[in-house]
């Protein structure tokens, strides 16, 4: 089966022609496997789709059109009302996001001590310094003033988590810039809980070229050059 090792991007499936040559064709949305309610997703057209298979299959069929170019995965779950993000909220967003990223790495480090494999040796070495030295805030909701004070006091503890998240996302290809698709795994899971994340990433793209470079990413999170 030549299609077994033939890679197609999301929304397309491999099909061999009469000569057995594999190529990618659009996934038929009607042929997508049935999904549960919790597997539904919301598109940027504010329509609910029965899973990512259906969404990307339809996007593929619209390829070459304005609608196809604009259609992306917005967030996980059925479409719902997302409150407007105010200027004040988007200004405070990096404080919560930095703290969240740092705490994720702390949890990975704790888990890695019992079951190795979550982190590489190099990552473990870097995170250990943060883990042992920081006066860690207990996970949960914190006042803006406390988060800001912790960032100013323990700035060096936030640098690696911000860099780490960028390189976790920068995979297809790893070119030191993030596309909408590369951002999707982070954005799509957080939109229902963090209604400012879409505006935050839009404003991170300072030159509006649809790419967020490492420099733009760090600037958004308050990391110095």
UniProtKB/TrEMBL annotation:
InterPro entries: EF-hand-dom_pair, EF_Hand_1_Ca_BS, EF_hand_dom, Fol_N, Follistatin/Osteonectin_EGF, Kazal_dom, Kazal_dom_sf, Osteonectin_CS. The gene is Sparcl1. Gene3D superfamilies: 3.30.60.30, EF-hand. Residues 25-81 form the Kazal-like domain. The keyword Membrane does not apply. One of its GO terms (molecular function) is extracellular matrix binding. It comes from Odontophorus gujanensis. Residues 192-225 form the EF-hand domain. One of its GO terms (cellular component) is extracellular space. It holds the Pfam family Kazal_1. Keywords: Calcium, Disulfide bond, Extracellular matrix, Glycoprotein, Metal-binding, Secreted, Signal. This is SPRL1 protein.
């Amino acid at each position: 089966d030549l299609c077994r090792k033939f890679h197609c991007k999301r929304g397309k499936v491999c099909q061999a022609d009469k000569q057995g040559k594999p190529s990618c064709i659009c996934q038929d949305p009607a042929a997508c496997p049935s999904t549960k309610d919790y597997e539904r997703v919301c598109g940027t057209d504010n329509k609910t789709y029965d899973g990512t298979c259906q969404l990307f299959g339809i996007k593929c069929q619209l390829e070459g059109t304005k609608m196809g170019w604009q259609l992306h995965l917005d967030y996980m779950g059925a479409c719902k009302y997302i409150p407007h993000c105010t200027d004040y909220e988007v200004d405070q967003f990096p404080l919560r996001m930095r703290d969240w990223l740092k705490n994720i790495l702390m949890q990975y480090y704790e888990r890695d001590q019992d079951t190795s494999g979550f982190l590489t040796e190099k990552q473990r070495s870097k995170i250990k310094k943060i883990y042992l030295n920081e006066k860690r805030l207990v996970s949960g909701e914190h006042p803006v003033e406390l988060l800001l004070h912790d960032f100013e006091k323990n700035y060096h503890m936030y640098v690696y988590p911000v860099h780490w998240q960028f390189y976790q996302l920068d995979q297809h290809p790893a070119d030191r810039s993030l596309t909408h698709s590369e951002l999707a795994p982070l954005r799509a899971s957080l939109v229902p809980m963090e209604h400012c994340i879409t505006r935050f990433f839009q404003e991170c793209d300072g030159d509006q070229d649809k790419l967020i470079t490492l420099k733009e990413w760090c600037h958004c999170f308050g990391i110095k050059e």
